[in-house]
Amino acid sequence: xxxxxxxxxxxxxxxxxxxxxxxxxxxxxxxxxxxxxxxxxxxxxxxxxxxxxxxxxxxxxxxxxxxxxxxxxxxxxxxxxxxxxxxxxxxxxxxxxxxxxxxxxxxxxxxxxxxxxxxxxxxxxxxxxxxxxxxxxxxxxxxxxxxxxxxxxxxxxxxxxxxxxxxxxxxxxxxxxxxxxxxxxxxxxxxxxxxxxxxxxxxxxxxxxxxxxxxxxxxxxxxxxxxxxxxxxxxxxxxxxxxxxxxxxxxxxxxxxxxxxxxxxxxxxxxxxxxxxxxxxxxxxxxxxxxxxxxxxxxxxxxxxxxxxxxxxxxxxxxxxxxxxxxxxxxxxxxxxxxxxxxxxxxxxxxxxxxxxxxxxxxxxxxxxxxxxxxxxxxxxxxxxxxxxxxxxxxxxxxxxxxxxxxxxxxxxxxxxxxxxxxxxxxxxxxxxxxxxxxxx
Amino acid sequence: xxxxxxxxxxxxxxxxxxxxxxxxxxxxxxxxxxxxxxxxxxxxxxxxxxxxxxxxxxxxxxxxxxxxxxxxxxxxxxxxxxxxxxxxxxxxxxxxxxxxxxxxxxxxxxxxxxxxxxxxxxxxxxxxxxxxxxxxxxxxxxxxxxxxxxxxxxxxxxxxxxxxxxxxxxxxxxxxxxxxxxxxxxxxxxxxxxxxxxxxxxxxxxxxxxxxxxxxxxxxxxxxxxxxxxxxxxxxxxxxxxxxxxxxxxxxxxxxxxxxxxxxxxxxxxxxxxxxxxxxxxxxxxxxxxxxxxxxxxxxxxxxxxxxxxxxxxxxxxxxxxxxxxxxxxxxxxxxxxxxxxxxxxxxxxxxxxxxxxxxxxxxxxxxxxxxxxxxxxxxxxxxxxxxxxxxxxxxxxxxxxxxxxxxxxxxxxxxxxxxxxxxxxxxxxxxxxxxxxxxxxxxxxxxxxxxxxxxxxxxxxxxxxxxxxxxxxxxxxxxxxxxxxxxxxxxxxxxxxx
Lengths: 441, 499
Hints:
The structure holds 2 protein chains of 2 kinds.
Chain A: H1 3-22, H2 24-34, H3 36-53, H4 55-58, E1 65-68, E2 71-73, H5 75-83, E3 105-107, H6 152-188, E4 194-196, H7 197-216, H8 219-228, H9 230-258, H10 262-265, E5 267-269, H11 272-285, H12 288-298, H13 303-313, H14 316-329, H15 333-340, H16 345-382, H17 393-399, H18 407-435
Antiparallel strand pairs in A: 1-2, 1-3, 4-5
Helix pairs in contact in A: 2-18, 3-6, 3-18, 6-11, 6-13, 6-14, 6-16, 6-18, 7-9, 8-9, 12-13, 14-16, 15-16, 16-17, 16-18, 17-18
Chain B: H1 2-28, H2 34-39, H3 49-66, E1 75-79, H4 92-105, H5 108-127, H6 135-147, H7 154-172, H8 175-180, H9 183-194, H10 197-217, E2 227-231, H11 237-246, H12 260-295, H13 300-314, H14 317-328, H15 351-389, H16 392-399, H17 404-433, H18 436-441, H19 447-456, H20 460-488
Antiparallel strand pairs in B: 1-2
């Protein structure tokens, strides 16, 4: 046996050890990779993300590189820097039709249109196989146009961005709320938190006064912010929350002297689980699409509002998952050990309990992204929530209802919604199988 | 068991109250004035004082009829600056302006003085006779005065008051000055000199100006930061609404003035009928299909069925509906089915014709309504069946030499029923709320469409009722599912819950 061979053998054993050390996570990844359909779906999602990230380079009215009047420009890049305020357009490139310019040479994106570009010579819904009035094959509308002459393919490419953004952000909000509330409910139950009567009293007072000063007294500032823009609403909301937190803090400081009074100092159980479970029940029993429609109908159309509302109504599934998981985990030995070591509840929850309960949440998130993409496309299909000039898959599909002969308006955007939703569902299925120890392969 | 049910129903009550509060809260933040919507243009345009007063009288009566003249809730949590009788101000538009002014200046005494002088100014202007010489100017002045009721920012009020004053000043000042002003100002000169009411108007305008500046000078903003609680007792909007709701009186639709219960019943009939047919088809085909595919697990047929069910499950219904309408509902392709509506046969036609006409119209909606639940249910029953088929007792049953059909339907299927039963409880409330998108695409006058339109028309009596009903049905659905569980599975008992 040569020396090289022994080294190789050692390497393989150490590899196995690494695998074992990584434990559950590596196991899940291995299991997941065995499922070919789920794996392909995951790669498909990566492709969608790439399309969303590089949408400006795939479909744009501006050339990628162009030589115009002896100057070489990178107009797509340039637009980013202009948007950031780092540079400006030269005067001869301001307010122009990019397609009409006389370039020395130009490299165009594969799709030379933006979703909002109106091609007047191909208006009134021209189909992909119809004769199109175009200069060359490069300018062809491969998937046709809608009644205003907007390119469908470009709309679908840029729509990917909105669809994924809606899925990711609304599920981010949902998992943030869901994980925190579900974990509190499951871990604390109805009996783990004992607080003194003084604190209950002060907290109720604090909530009342806090909401008065943070939201009641500032209601007009907030209302004006809603009317203005979503960004200013976020800023004002943040200030309000800060005021609220401050007032709660002051009242919690006041608890200390009050505790000295015997009656107020007595400790009571706080039914955390009961309160959170009831809240979940309430949200689940209101039909969520109605709730979303009524909120969106009142406020000014904005894609971020849609995301927030979807997120704020869809956290209950995640919360239930986490709650059930933590109800199981909280009586396991290692949690008891951590308690015995004198760690406080917060540390045990954050460092030990939640990380062990997160894997089923991944499943809920994958399915949740699929359903929030679907909800957003339904809303834009109905023409609510998203501003009228924003092109989304749903709004493209709704154009099909207005022109009955334009089958391409119905087929392609709907297919995009279908594929994306399916792919996320398949990933969810794959995760379910990979995380299920009974289905060991 | 009975004890458990009673306990669950008791838990319902706070949940339902919370939901009713939630919907009520949403309605308060909605823009628009329901009373104005209902009277719709009755007192609009230029008019005489008598018209105006009649209009206001009608408004007051309608408001009283709808119960909107009452305080909103049992108590209100407001600030020291806001008087507890603010809800008595009739027009919601005026109320909103006054609330804004309170927020800015915080002194109700001065604000109410300002408001009452605005009202007097408006009335006085209406007493001025309109004739050809002053018509244009009068319209201008009246427009400005009614504008004053809706603006609250200092600059805009100042501008409007200045404009009004300059118009009236043209009358007060010397002749030379009035020559400088334009044609319309000359009209005002004529108009002002012709009627004694305008002299009074000018005096009131002065009062408004004084009231406004004293309001500004004596601002007490600090009053906005002192919390106050007002109690109104039982005679309030929420209490009246919820107690009527419990008694089965859901109010009157703001839009077409029909009883909400009839509107909802008309819509519910369609939704119930359609979804019941859909659920029936679903259960009749989906469950055997799922069971069959589970029994032949791994076979070619199972793979095809499973894959196609998954694809069906992921197909967005509104896409399929749009495609079906486009390709089969007239248009340039196959004109097989009517794209929307329910046919236009009246109740006088023979029922058999109406039946076929309706059935013909319902083919496309039914396809769209059926396939997602169908796919979902088949997948669930396949999964449930697979779980059971792997159990030891099934192996034992087979080993005993029992017939395949007995093993499948008697031993396995009964145990696989469990999840399918719960699903019915989930499917039912969904069916009631109706599929909003499908009903809109096919314009079926069902619950979903009615509720959707009511939300946008701010027709709150209908929105409330729909939301409350679907909430109650969802809760009942969960309860029924839990009870059915206990019936099907003897291991589950709710009597003594000691886990």
